[in-house]
Amino acid sequence: MVLSGVGGGCSGSKLLGLAEKYFGDLSNEYPRKVPEAGGIRFTGSEYRYRNDYIPHMYSAVAVEGVGYGHEDALPLQMANQFIGQWDVTHATTRTAPSRWVQKISHEHGLHFLQHFNIHYKDTGLFGVYFVSNGDDLVNSQGIMRSIQHEWKHLAAAISEEETTLARNQLRTELYQNLETNTQKAEHNAKELLYTGSVRSLADLEQEISNIDHNKLRAAVLRNVYDRDTANVGVGLTEAFMSYHRTRAAMSWWRL
């Protein structure tokens, strides 16, 4: 630490007195203890990296999710499975089993879309990544608005039949990710690191079975509806959707 008096008119004794007053309780010893985490604050924001040499617009939009051990973690993962993934190599458009894919797959210059739900220990990210032409603002806003309408459907109108479909999709993904010893070890390590214990597969299956459409709606309503978003665009971002329009569309009048 360096203390200095600039401009004259400051005696050494006065400077010493001020230093003792404001910094006298400081120590040059470090106890080598890891400081406690002071909590996490998610702030809505937007970042664009425009590069016209990149042929498409690569975009991601997410709200703050929940930690791995949170009670809403599995319902949000089920919601993530309900939206799923689509790209132009799929043979299904209007004949797809998903109502949403039937609508989004032939509009707005969309090439690829992947919904994601990432859990960390104390927080998470729930959102979508997509690739589009990036040549028309109306198309970009149309893609985002379609995604937000699907989030609205999850928060207020998803049926028990749709929930059963999402539940079975979640089971399939879960057990596929536990097929090998390496995958099972990774799963157990994450459970232990993030929650302090390891759930048995029977307990995990029971938790999934207990999620009905009301629990799914409530989880999405608490964590997605009317929440700030983090928006990122790379490539042809001239047509990237405005943060303010995206944030304003995160809520609707509901009856």
TrEMBL record:
Residues 10-170 form the Peptidase M16 C-terminal domain. It comes from the Eukaryota. Gene3D superfamilies: Metalloenzyme, LuxS/M16 peptidase-like (3.30.830.10). It comes from Trichostrongylus colubriformis (Black scour worm). GO terms for molecular function: metal ion binding. PANTHER family: CYTOCHROME B-C1 COMPLEX SUBUNIT 1, MITOCHONDRIAL, METALLOPROTEASE. This is Cytochrome b-c1 complex subunit 1 mitochondrial. InterPro entries: Metalloenz_LuxS/M16, MPP/UQCRC_Complex, Peptidase_M16_C. GO terms for cellular component: mitochondrion.
